[in-house]
Amino acid sequence: RAARAFVDRLGTPVTLVIPGNHDIPLFNPLARLFAPYANHRQAFGAELEPMAAWPDLLLLTVNTTRPWRHKDGEVSDAQVARVAAQLHAAQ
Question: Which residue of 13, 19, 77, 87 could cross-link 40, Cys pair, CB 3.0 to 4.6 Å?
């Protein structure tokens, strides 16, 4: 809620928010296993890798967090393929 209130105070017309390792419950194993992004989704919506596009600008995000690890994120093959397809389509 505090992060959402901060973002709202910025007053920007567009925000792209992706979860970080601090958004995954560290000390609640059930939430971590079954709903690792529940708090993030409640505050910022369901999309974990939002994008925004304008004629001269494409903003893509990649969620590198993994619920089973608290640090050392990674980019999956599926994420690489998704970003590559979006960049290719934007040409």
Answer: 19
Give the number of other Cβ atoms within 10 Å of residue 8's Cβ: 10
Give the pLDDT mean for 70-75: 86
- Cα gap 21→63, rounded to integer Å: 10
- The answer to whether 58 touches 13, Cβ cutoff 8 Å, is no
What is the largest distance, in Å, between two alpha-carbon atoms of the chain?
44
Q: Is the pTM above the cut of 0.90?
A: no
DSSP the chain: -HHHHHHHHH--S-------GGGS-SS-HHHHHH-TTHHHHHHH-S-SS-EEEETTEEEE-----BTTBSS-----HHHHHHHHHHHHHH-
Residues 6+ positions from 79 with CB-CB distance below 8 Å: 49, 62, 63
